[in-house]
Structures are given as structure tokens and as C-alpha cells.
Amino acid sequence: MAKAIIPYGKQSVSQEDIDAVVEVLQSDYLTQGPKVKEFEEAFAKYVGAKYAIAVANGTAALHLNALALGVKVGDQVITTPLTFVASANCVRYCGGEVLFADINPETYLLDINKTRTLLESDKGKRIKGIIPVDFAGKSVDMESFRALADEFNCWIIEDACHAPGAFFEDSMGEKIKAGSGVYADLAIFSFHPVKHIAAGEGGMITTNNEELYEKLLMLRTHGITKDASQFQNSLDIAVGETQYSVPNTQYPHWYMEMQELGFNYRLTDIQAALGKSQLDRSEEGLKRRRRIAKQYFEAFEDKNFIKGQSGVVEGHAYHLYVIEVDKRKELHQYLRDQNIFAQVHYFPAHLMPYYKQFGWRVGDLPCAEEYYKHCISLPMYPTLTDEEQMFVIETITNFYKA
After folding, report:
1. 393 to each of 66, 300, 346, how far by Cα in Å?
2. Are 133 and 20 in a shared domain?
3. What is the CATH number of the domain that holds 332?
4. Sign of the dihedral through C-alpha 70, 71, 74, 75
5. Among 58, 74, 308, 330, which lies 20 to 30 A Cα-Cα from 264?
6. Contact 133, 78 (CB under 8 A)
């Protein structure tokens, strides 16, 4: 009998998740109802941020953030090549230019020293922002990036799609959660099925900035507001009459204003209910991911074919468990032959044909390019059993013995 497939990532749907979705399906609101606000408030509390805005997906979150921060033609933004391309594409959606800075080969994160070099060489002051990525679930040292951004008058979007529950310790010894808004202006998360919290699709923006929060709420829904305190048209225009038979000082309940060119990037109540149910047990999943990481590390720490992933980091969320190996292509096929569907994250974004048109070439970012030659992401998800993980470990070990 064929072995069951072991994917690199997989959602886990419980009976509680199903019940939460069914409850919404049987309610009056499938979208724009109370579940979205409930999910937003719970998520903001989880990461320690003041505000959370639920959106259609992580890419929508990035796009809205770039819009809210005013990215425009001629602006430049720094990000890492080691990410899903959406982290860079959001800048292009607004007409801005992407500057890739190389990674730190020890952490796989955006290298702060190489980011500084780009900022120092920016004589025209065109660089407006930085988008660090919490790659694989390891939180970026946002305190250091905040100091750098302030020095050069830049904003920060933290791409925390891999890292709900992750944290780093700042200079005061405080554990700063990814997306808390303590150091970044805005942060974003994804609820794609392989992520920690699966809502089918979906995303979340978090911030501590009230002005950005209000702007994002409007941009999420066609640029429309129903808040009378923000209305720009006069009461006469809103009512549609120039005289009243009875004095009236209130805008009618039906009235709304489109004040900016926004988008329909809303999350449905169905997705919000699933996301909230998954959030309720996210700590349990996080603990399991860290146990899986510990077992991988202990199995491979004395193997000379493993180049990266040293130790088990306390604040790591372990969306991915990445190792660097020789003969990566052969190993990948060998694993697939055993129904182990490992993955590769990521092909360097600067070498995508789209970005090469802007002058990026092989050799520009050597650390990211060297990493790509060896990286492979092993199965990592809470329902991965000990037996399945041991099979993965034994299969890799047997490959290199052969």
C-alpha cells in the first residue's frame, strides 16, 4: 500500500472550527457582520497591538499598508529577496521602486548593515520605507530597525506572515511579539492554509497608530466612510434638499462618502469565524511546532551535510524548518519518491524575470543566492506525528548514507 503523503505544511481543522463556521452560515451575516470585529479584537490582543484590521489576504494587507503610507511613483522601499514576492510587489502596485538588500546568512533575515549601506548611499532621499520579513517564523530585531529607520526618516512595515506568536527580546529584556506595533508602523499576517492560523484565505494588519488605522478601514472598503465626523459634503448635499420643513442637524442613516480610491479587500464573517476559532488554540500549535523543531535539530546537529538552522530559538514561531544541504535537487526528488513533499523557500525575488527588468542580476545578492542553492523546507505542522517526522529524518539520513 502506498505511503500517505507528508506535505511540508498542512492545515488542521477541528470540530470547533466547523461549528464556528456553521454558526455563521446559519446566522444573518455572512459578511460585514460581528465576527470580523470579534476576530480583529482577539488578534490585536494576541499580538499586543492596539488595532487590527482584517482583510482579504496577506497581499491585500501589504497593498493597503503601502497605500496608507503614501508610496508613490519615484519612492524607493527596501526589502529582502528571501520572501514570497508579495512583500516586494506591494511597492510596485503603488508605482514605487524596490531595492533588495541581502540577507544575513546566519539568521536568513534582512541584513541591517546592508540596509544601512543602501540608506547611506541614497543621496536623493528617495528611500521612504523598509519591509523586513520574519522569515520562517524568526522575528526580526525590530528595535534595531526602528532606530535605523528613524535615523533616515523611514517607515517600517513588518511582514509577519510566518510569525504569529514569535518574539524577540529588546534592549530592556522585554519580549516583543511580532506585529505588536511597538517598533513597526504597521505589520501584516496571512491566514493561508499552511500558516499557523488558517482561514482558507485572509490577512490581518496590526498597528498602534490611530491615524493609520482609520485610513486603512476606509481603504479596505472602497475608500468609503460612514463616520459622520469625517464627512466632507454639507448636510444639504447629503440629504438631497436645500430646505427642511423640520430643522435637522444630523446626516441621514443611509448616507456614506467615498473619499479615496479604495478597494474591496474585506474579510467575510465565515473566514473570520474560522480564523478566530483557530486563534483560540494557536498557542498549542506553536508549542508543537517548537517540539518538532527541537527533534529535527537533535537529529541533524552532528551531521556534516546540514549547514544551517543551528539550535532551537525560543521566540521562533517555526512556520518553516529550513536546512541547507548539498545535492538539494537530488534529495528533493528522493523525498518525493517516498511521498515526502518537502518544499523550497524561496527563489530569490530579485532574480524573478519581472524584477530582472529593473537591472537585478545574478551575483547582486550573493548571500541569498548561495542560500537558495542549498535550502529545503522540511515538513512542519502541528499534526505531523512523531512517526512521520522520524520517517522524514530517517529518509534524509539514508539518502546521505547512500
Report:
1. 42, 8, 22
2. yes
3. 3.90.1150.10
4. positive
5. 74
6. no
